Amino acid sequence: MPIRLEPDFPAKSVLEAEDIFAIDNSRAEQQDIRPLKLLILNLMPDKITTEIHLLRLISQSPLQIDVDFLKVASHQAKHTSKNHLDKFYLEFSQIKDTYYDGLIITGAPIEQMAFEQVDYWPELVEIMEWSQLAVSSVVHICWGAQAGLYHHFGIEKVPFEEKLFGIYKQDLQHDFRLFRGFDDRFWMPQSRYTGINEEQVDQKKLQVIAKDEENRSSILISEDEHDIFLLGHFEYATDTLEKEYLRDRERGLATAQPENYYEEGKIYNYWRAQAHLFYHNWLNDVYQVTPYRLEMIPQLQKARKLRST
Predict the structure, then answer these.
(1) Is 235 among the residues known to form the active site?
(2) What average pLDDT does the chain have?
(3) 259 and which of 8, 87, 166, 201 could share a cystine (Cβ 3.0–4.6 Å)?
């Protein structure tokens, strides 16, 4: 089933060129099934690139999907035009009384700052709190995952000696339905200066789904299965790490070449299949779990939390 986008949404032409289907509102309204309602809180500076990355993955579902994009009102974006944001993005005040099947909270290149020093931290906390009863399932990515783990579970960041940058092998620790079809060992892109304090991970409140070869947690899920924390970037395109590397070098940063990425000068994508599989599984799971009437989500969440206590 194609993803539903506004006719002049910039990512639409890119996805169509890749033979990924997108339909307009008039055609979508002729379909009888209820579309999934997704919300993407896009915290990345280059918002259009992140839109393309995520839409490329979620559009592979056989379900019709309506996507809203959310921006934080307490931060002025510098790398995306105001016209784009005003036209295609909502603020929290506009959706706080709305229910969604799923929410994606992206990363942000600010992991070296204390959470409380981020200018939009209070607003992000408000959104994360709202999501606990207004959204059926939340995927947190990279810094968004660290922020969620800190706010919901008190897990602090820890700095790395050098940037974790490249693609790294991950080992599945548990058989969980969102990772059905995954290889026991798979690859995931990473681009961050910090990890999480593993000693603060409470196994009763969080399930560690995957770890890397250094025994660092890379995927965690809350006990009530509502929140998924991806510390890496399944959504990255093949050349994303190369672009980040070249950008860092232009800025004079001593960033090393991404690990396990170049092979005789050529880039091979080892994570594409797992990326599509994860988002396909997640959307299917959200479709199965969420009530047909979205306003019933708070009751679903309360029942989940009761079962997990």
Answers:
(1) yes
(2) 90
(3) 166
Question: Out of 142, 152, 244, 280, which one is annotated catalytic?
Answer: 142
For residue 246, give the H/E element and its range: helix 240-250
Q: Tell me: the pLDDT tens digits for 84-101? A: 988 999 999 999 999 999
Binding residues for substrate: 163, 191, 247
Torsion angle in degrees (nearest 10) through CA of 162, 165, 167, 171: 40
Q: What tens digit of pLDDT does each residue of 120-146 get?
A: 999 999 999 999 999 999 999 999 999
Task: Check if 276 is active-site.
Answer: no
Annotated binding site: 163, 191, 247
According to the model, what pLDDT value does residue 31 have? 47
Respond yes or no: is residue 79 known to be catalytic: no
Query: 159 pLDDT exceeds 70?
Result: yes
Q: How confident is the model over 214-218, as a mean pLDDT?
A: 96
Nearest-CA neighbor of 123 among 85, 77, 72? 72
Can you list the positions of beta strands (E) in the chain? 3-4, 22-23, 36-41, 65-70, 89-90, 100-105, 135-141, 157-172, 185-196, 206-212, 217-222, 227-230, 262-263, 266-267
Q: Directed axis angle between helix 121-134 and helix 143-153, to 10°? A: 70
DSSP 198: G
